[in-house]
Design brief:
This protein has strands spanning 12-20, 22-23, 26-27, 30-36, 45-52, 55-62, 69-75, 81-90, 93-98, 101-106, 118-124, 142-149. It is mostly beta strands. Strands 10-9-8-1-12 form a five-stranded antiparallel β-sheet, with no helix packed on it. A five-stranded antiparallel β-sheet has the order 7-6-5-4-11, with no helix packed on it. A two-stranded antiparallel ribbon has the order 2-3.
């Protein structure tokens, strides 16, 4: 899903209820729920949930002076199956939520400067940079809903 031609906004709360496939708590493949804009990667991205090496990762990244700066983490626990992922993006902070639980707030380096972003839901069996979990084919990420609030 790509809302670049239909919806974008600056700041707000974004949330999706997603099903990540996997077994024994290890997220399969490479699914993502993230925000970006048409000047990616220079203007950065906000990854609300990413199947990152078999876990549910969250981070934001921007590239001033063409050098990527990454801040975030990986949620502990079993993130296979159905879970709710959210982010509250404010002018000076980004706060991540998994199943309503605050995973962390970041204030340093939040540098998107009023640039609107659109939402993306992506899924593949293996990105070129090999950050996804074990490849499982056939399998799929499922989406119950996606919401955004201003």
């Amino acid at each position: 899903m790509d809302t670049s031609n239909a919806f974008n906004q600056t700041y707000g709360y974004y949330e999706a209820r997603l099903y990540y496939p996997g077994t024994s708590g290890v997220v399969a493949n490479w699914g993502g729920f993230w925000l970006s804009n048409n000047n990616w990667p220079m203007d950065g991205e906000i990854d609300i949930a990413e199947g990152f090496h078999g876990t549910a990762g969250y981070h934001f990244e921007y590239a001033p002076k063409h050098t990527a700066i990454w801040q975030g983490g990986q949620a502990p626990g079993d993130w296979t199956g159905w879970h709710t992922y959210g982010v509250d993006w404010e002018p000076n902070s980004i706060t991540y939520y998994f199943d309503g639980q605050n995973m962390g707030t970041f204030t340093a380096g939040v540098s998107y400067d009023n640039k609107p972003m659109f939402m993306l839901l992506t899924y593949s069996t293996g990105p070129e940079n090999d950050v996804g979990g074990p490849s499982v084919v056939p399998d799929t990420m499922q989406v119950q809903y996606v919401r955004a609030w201003k």
